[in-house]
Design goal:
Helices cover 33% and strands 17% of the residues. By secondary structure, the chain is an alpha/beta fold. A seven-stranded mixed β-sheet has the order 1-3-2-4-5-8-9, sandwiched between helices. The protein is globular, with a radius of gyration of 17 Å.
């Protein structure tokens, strides 16, 4: 199999800050680039920020074709373990499939201090017709679902059918974890999302076991909200959420 290089701009990013770590996960077909604005904003708050590149992403669609959803989770988990060596408390942010993986991580590691979920994917209706299909090998992808014009997201033009099936398996399994997830959660949902219906976030917040949970509605962004008009609002609310979960003795040093 041909070895592909990482697309320029799709690399992981890391900013060293204080002892509060923030792990960031991009979504299906995306790269850390889609989360860079949010990462930079959280780094400016003083936090240590790391966004790994999920396996099979940011290179070529043939790399993604050969991935299992457990390998995407492994990429995020390795990032968590790496950040844990450097920080005393960990928060996790995930967008779309990144939110799905974040839920799985929070289920496995209940000591995570809090999670922030942006348009988390529990269903992607546009892929439903492919559920039992064995062809085509690749499906043409439309332009990223971003309301603001002129925004470029690094992604693939084609989605491998095998990868779509892996995403569907992950989404089907994740809701069973929700009742046993108890970490504080901040949930963002775009009211107009052409990829993941806003009802996904409503279901998530209703069924998650967390005592501390909050929903923020986004009225001026589509699915890739981290790159859209509401990105400043998302960054601000994430910063406030993190500050609410950690002792004042820590935040007073900012």
């Amino acid at each position: 199999m041909k070895k592909y290089t990482v697309i320029p701009g799709a690399e992981p990013f890391y900013w060293e800050g204080n002892e509060i770590g923030v792990l960031i996960s991009h979504g299906f077909m995306g790269t850390p680039q889609s989360m860079q604005f949010l990462g930079e904003a959280l780094a400016e708050f003083g936090y240590t920020v790391f966004a790994p590149r999920l396996k099979g992403h940011g290179t070529h669609e043939e790399d993604l074709e050969n991935c299992h959803h457990e390998e995407w989770f492994d990429s995020l988990e390795e990032g968590y373990e790496w950040l844990k060596l450097r920080c005393t408390e960990i928060f996790v942010v995930g967008q779309s499939m990144g939110g799905t993986l974040t839920l799985k991580l929070a289920h496995k590691y209940p000591d995570i201090k809090g999670i922030m979920l942006i348009n988390t994917a529990l269903s992607v209706p546009g892929f439903n017709y492919l559920e039992d299909k064995t062809e085509p090998r690749f499906v043409d992808e439309p332009a990223p679902d971003i309301k603001e014009k002129g925004i470029h997201e690094i992604t693939y033009d084609k989605a491998p059918l095998t990868a779509i099936h892996q995403l569907q398996a992950l989404m089907k399994f994740t809701p069973t974890l929700l009742p046993s997830i108890t970490v504080p959660v901040l949930c963002f949902k775009s009211i107009e999302d052409h990829v993941v219906p806003a009802e996904n976030s409503d279901y998530l917040l209703e069924h998650i076991g967390s005592a501390k949970k909050e929903m923020v509605s986004l009225f001026n962004s589509y699915h890739v909200a981290s790159m859209d008009y509401d990105k400043e609002l998302i960054a601000k609310r994430c910063g406030q959420f993190i500050e609410q979960q950690i002792p004042k003795a820590v935040t007073s040093s900012f």
